[in-house]
Amino acid sequence: MESPFKADAVKGKVALITGGGSGIGLEITKQLGKHGASVVIMGRRKHILDSAVSSLRSLGIRAVGFDGDVRKPEDARRVVESTFKQFGRLDILVNAAAGNFLSSAEDLSPNGLRTVMDIDTVGTFTMCHEALKYLKKGAPGRSDSSSGGVILNISATLHYTATWYQLHVSAAKAAIDATTRNLALEWGSEYDIRVNGIAPGLIGDTPGMSKLVPKDINSQAKNLLPLYKAGEKWDIAMAALYLSSDAGKFINGAIVVVDGGFWISQPRP
Ligand code: HXC
C-alpha cells in the first residue's frame, strides 16, 4: 500500500532496528528507509540479516546489518558503536527483537520465563542504555538537531488482560511498557529524547502470528476482530514512522495500540 507520508519524512536520520531482519522489524526498517533514513538492522541470524540487507538495498535504501544478540551487552555495545562508525550519528532506535513460544504456566520453566524476559525486556533496556549517549540532544553527529533522538519499543496487548499460554511474554511486554514510560520521563526531561511504544495486535504474515495464533483466525474474524481482519506489518510501520518523524514531536511516553480494536473487543452476543 502507498504511504501517506512524504518521502523525506525522516530524511538524513539514522535508525538502528533490533530484530530488523524479519517480520514487523523488517517492515519498520523498510518504511524508515523508504522515507529517507539510513538503516542498520541487528539480529542473531546472519543469513537472515544478509538477505534483508540485499532486499533493502534493492529498494535504494542505505542499509547495513550487524549480527548480535540483544541478551549480550557486548553485542549491544558493538552494534551501537558500529552504527555510529558507519553513519556518524544515531537518531532512532527501534527495539523489535523478541522471543516467543506457547507454553502453559505449568510447563514453563523459570529459565523459559527468564529467557523471554532477557530477550524482550532486558534486551530492550540494554539497547537503550548503550544508545543513550548518541541519542541525547547535541550528541556526536547530531548537533544539527534541535531535539534528542527517538526510541520506539515494540510490545503487545497480551498483558492488558490475560492471555492463554503467554505468561512469559505478557510479563516481558508489561515490563517493556513500564520501561518505555520511565525512560520517557527521565530521558525526556534530561536529554530531550522521546520514548514511545507500539503495541501490535494480530498482524498477519509474521513469525509471531504463525507460531502463536490458530491458522483459522481469519475465519473467526467476524466474531473476534472489530475490523474483521488481522492487521498488516505496514500498519505497524506507519505508526513507527509517525512516532519517529516530526509529526510525533510532542508524543512521549505513549504506547500506541495498533490492533484494530482487538483487545477491547468481546465476542458478538
Ligand atoms: C516451553 C521452552 C520452549 C517451548 C524454549 N523453552 N522453547 N519452554 N516451550 N516451546 C525454554 C527452554 O526449555 C529453556 O528452559 C529456555 O526456554 C531457553 O530455551 P533455549 O532454546 O535454550 O533458548 P534459546 O535458544 O535462546 O531460544 C529462545 C527462544 C527463541 C525464545 C525459544 O529462540 C525464539 O523464540 N526464537 C523465535 C523468535 C520469534 O519467534 N520472534 C517473534 C516473536 S513474536 P530450560 O528450563 O529447559 O533450560 C512476539 C509477538 C508477541 O513476540 C505478541 C503476539 C500476539
From TrEMBL:
PANTHER family: PEROXISOMAL 2,4-DIENOYL-COA REDUCTASE (PTHR43296), PEROXISOMAL 2,4-DIENOYL-COA REDUCTASE [(3E)-ENOYL-COA-PRODUCING] (PTHR43296:SF2). GO terms for molecular function: 2,4-dienoyl-CoA reductase (NADPH) activity. InterPro entries: DECR2-like, KR_dom, NAD(P)-bd_dom_sf, SDR_fam. Pfam families: adh_short_C2. Its EC number is 1.3.1.124. One of its GO terms (biological process) is fatty acid catabolic process. The lineage of its organism: Eukaryota, Viridiplantae, Streptophyta, Embryophyta, Tracheophyta. GO terms for cellular component: peroxisome. It comes from the Eukaryota. Signal peptide: none annotated. CDD domains: TER_DECR_SDR_a (cd05369). Keywords: NADP, Oxidoreductase. Coiled coil: none annotated. This is 2,4-dienoyl-CoA reductase [(3E)-enoyl-CoA-producing]. Residues 13-181 form the Ketoreductase domain. It catalyses: a (2E,4E)-dienoyl-CoA + NADPH + H(+) = a 4,5-saturated-(3E)-enoyl-CoA + NADP(+); a (2E,4Z)-dienoyl-CoA + NADPH + H(+) = a 4,5-saturated-(3E)-enoyl-CoA + NADP(+). The keyword Oxidoreductase applies.
